[in-house]
Amino acid sequence: MNRIGSMFFPEESLKIVLAVIVVAGIVLAGFLLVGKFRENNEQRNAQKFIDSILNRYARLEVGENNTFIFQGFRGGGNWYLTGWSDSNPARPQKCFFAPCLCICKKGSISLNCQLDGFCRNLSEPPVVSAAAVESYTSNPSGTGGGGPGLPVLRTPSCISVGDGVLALNLSRTETSFSVYSSVKNSANAFCAF
Predict the structure, then answer these.
(1) pTM as predicted
(2) Which pLDDT does position 55 carry in this prediction?
(3) CA-closest candidate to residue 77, choices 102, 53, 42, 127
(4) Using alpha carbons only, how large is the chain's radius of gyration in Å?
(5) pLDDT tens digit sequence for 146-174
(6) What is the domain range of residue 84?
(7) Are 97 and 121 in contact (CB under 8 A)?
(8) Do residues 154 and 130 touch, judged by C-beta distance below 8 A?
């Protein structure tokens, strides 16, 4: 019994506990750094995505329209593309008093564009839209049943980026810049007003 008890002196126990705490702290710091790196990488990729669209836009002549292929990015399913005219009072403040194209994290559209989005000012107001998606009206009260209501086709005013390949039709007129996705994507439904 004395031999077993003599193996662990109080000062050795303290060293073991301190070593475990230090190792746990190092592991936790590693996880936090990796998470921060991924978040920063996602934000950099979002900025690169919107910049690549604007590079193609800059090459379009007035009256020209073309379909371009863009590569989404890891975490791109959390981001969407939308546009704001200079007369829209709900536009993010970072657009100042100009029309802008924004890539924003999903959630409240204007709030998330202001907090977690990246906007680029344009000379023409952007029109961002996607293929119509089916949503449902609310079931009128008094009709009985708890069904979802009537199906309605709505045209989303945003495009979900995703992490795969995305074909976007870009067109430029003297008065507007249009970005359109012909893919019916249920991820676009949250911004079908």
Answers:
(1) 0.67
(2) 94
(3) 42
(4) 25
(5) 555 566 666 668 888 988 899 999 999 88
(6) 2-140+147-191
(7) no
(8) no
